[in-house]
Amino acid sequence: MNDFIQYPAIDVRGGRVVRLRQGDYALETRYGDDPAGLAERYALAGAKWLHLVDLDAAREGGYRLYPLLRKLTSGTGLRVQTGGGVRNRDDVQRLLDVGVSRVVVGSLSVREPDEVFDWIAEFGSEHITVALDTRQDTSGAWRLPVHGWTESATETLEDFAGRYARAGLRHLLCTDIARDGMLQGPNIDLYRRLTGLLPSVALQASGGIRGIDDIKAARDAGCKGVVLGKALLEGQLELSEALQC
After folding, report:
1. 89 conformational bin, left if phi > 0, alpha if psi -120 to 50, beta if neither
2. How far apart are CA 157 and CA 132, in angstroms?
3. Which residues form the active site (predicted)?
4. How much is the pLDDT for 149?
5. Residue 118 a catalytic site member
């Protein structure tokens, strides 16, 4: 059975489908104002999962895509993993109650790991995806920027990910910030290192995917999934073709 998952991604800001370059809100490209319609097209192309991000909530808190979620979970057949602005236990519960399959926890997973450990235990490892955005510093260490990426956690990516693995984490989404939205290829060396260190974790590669070869490279590096964003929106990659590889 093939357990490699391709996650078409929809990032929403102000009701529009957008993409940011390297996570910078000032570097936004807009791709229309119908995220529900785009999700339906992805479902018709054969997608089983959708990765949905509330960019407004990620910046300001207060997840606000519930009406869209209800459409997606009831009308498309897609399983949804979603995040943005998840700050407490009630946020997780509310999203799961709407029918979300996995709740994505980003910056809070770095600031308050013990709290997220508790959520993994309470809600189950299949319902939480920890998203770690990382940047390599001048010494070569992979750091985890927080607070708008202006500060970094003292622990390295490997340290943090290892702690989560020991706490029972199953799903980890890792983005190399330098490659996010750049269509320059994923950081295969980084993903190969993580999959070697964390054999019990299903790693999702995010950032830089350009086409079929990048998807295959991520799979061959041990990743269990890839997030497909800008390449789909720009027409550089056809989802139906990607799903066949």
Report:
1. alpha
2. 8
3. 11 (proton acceptor), 133 (proton donor)
4. 43
5. no
